[in-house]
């Protein structure tokens, strides 16, 4: 059933203007960049590597600056970043979802934890960098800690909103049908909050990449953020852009994976949206 | 409770079913303390609902009738008086809030089928969480009950995939799975168009003739009330209490031909002014839904 819907959606997508508009959008973006930096060398864009230069370097078996799809080092950097995001995402989800569920479920729990939570939340990840380095001695843990932080807020907050958005009639109906408090939590609160939880997880994985790069620029000795910073120091500008584009691609793929996982867990919602003509 | 002889003719005529599900609402008060301003939603309300009857509660929007239903269901407390089910106190002076339970199942105004469970899982939900039936047995029973109610074929759909009329039927079957003493219906057909509504009325009666469960049915539609009910309680606007109780002396089983019968028209005429009067009062008071 799930597979049928997937194939149907892909076929429908290919028939719609969406993929072609997407291609036009990318073409315009790269075209503008190419013209500004390589053809007309417009002021300020002149010092920027052009897309041709970047792509040639990226796909070069003998890269000028020593970094391309053909060098194992490149994959090492990508893998280190992916691994850190994975750790951070798993930790922030494992902590954030239960925390958010309890925030939404229990008024008392909310009243004594939410103000603290809301005070910590606006503090930017970068402000935590010195403390993270002092607190965690190794190279790896401060980066993972910093990456987890912002993700945790996004997941917890959305999960809480998810619980609060559940129509009062559902837990009432369940109570009528003889469900205990715990059964209501399991059968009503968790699945009822799931759409919001997955919205939160998509934001969370995006924010994880955001703060990962920031954390890697300050600490660590591998990873795409580190690569951006070290290439800047070593005046290897095309590599900066290769690393930036790599973050974009891997980041996009990771939120697409989260979305797919959500669709898989919420077939009811996929089918409802398909009927409503959306999706 | 002994009903007067003259009323017996309109009493539900079950065969072999033990009578259960009599609700006694005795001098019930409910005061809401909304933002410091006390609002009396229900005042000194006394009403006996006989076991096995369809009792229709009619009143303008916001008159406090849902408050009464919520008190019986155990969704909130009462400020005074007591409510009994078959002689046992649900809530009263020492226990202001009843415990919700499968002997009194509510069918909600906007529907409350769980969207993340299939229709079949929804129907099987009650006995499973109560531990009365194993999952497989409950699914079996649910499938049978759905087939009986003309719902074969939508078992594995989600509620969002079927029509709203179907959803209401699934929800009523989900309630009946628990063999409740009372069904509490809170304007269940309000959101349906009038054609679907008429189909649902007959479907509800059909289900009722099979199950003979007491039905406490809230509506603001007088025609619906007289068509379905053994009795119709017309409530005053807030504070809510019975203003007039109408015995509908039209024999069950009924079908839609009843609507054009002279007796039906006469009963409508007898009550329409009472309902209208309360509607005007409610409108002038500008009461909001509660």
Summarize the structure.
Chain A is mainly α. Chain A is built from twelve helices and no strands.
Structure, described:
The complex is a heterodimer of chains A (279) and B (290). With 279 residues, chain A is mostly helical. Helices cover 78% and strands 0% of the residues of chain A. Chain A is built from 12 helices and no strands. Chain A has helices at residues 2-15, 18-39, 51-58, 72-105, 107-120, 129-135, 140-164, 169-176, 181-218, 224-233, 237-265, 267-275. In chain A, helix 9 (181-218) packs antiparallel against helix 11 (237-265). The radius of gyration of chain A is 23 Å and the shape is globular. Chain A starts with a helix and ends with a helix. The model of chain A has no long low-confidence stretch (mean pLDDT 91). With 290 residues, chain B is of the alpha/beta class. Chain B has a domain at 51-65 and 102-285: Rossmann fold, CATH 3.40.50.300. Helix content of chain B is 35%, strand content 23%. Chain B contains 8 helices and 10 strands. Chain B has helices at residues 5-8, 65-73, 119-130, 135-148, 164-176, 194-211, 222-228, 262-285, and strands at residues 23-34, 37-49, 54-58, 80-85, 88-91, 104-107, 182-186, 214-219, 231-235, 242-247. In chain B, strands 6-7-8-3-9-10 form a 6-stranded mixed beta sheet, sandwiched between helices. In chain B, helix 3 runs parallel beside helix 5. The model of chain B is unreliable at 1-17 (pLDDT under 50). Classes of the chains: A mainly alpha (279), B alpha/beta (290). The interface between A and B is medium-sized, with 25 and 28 residues.
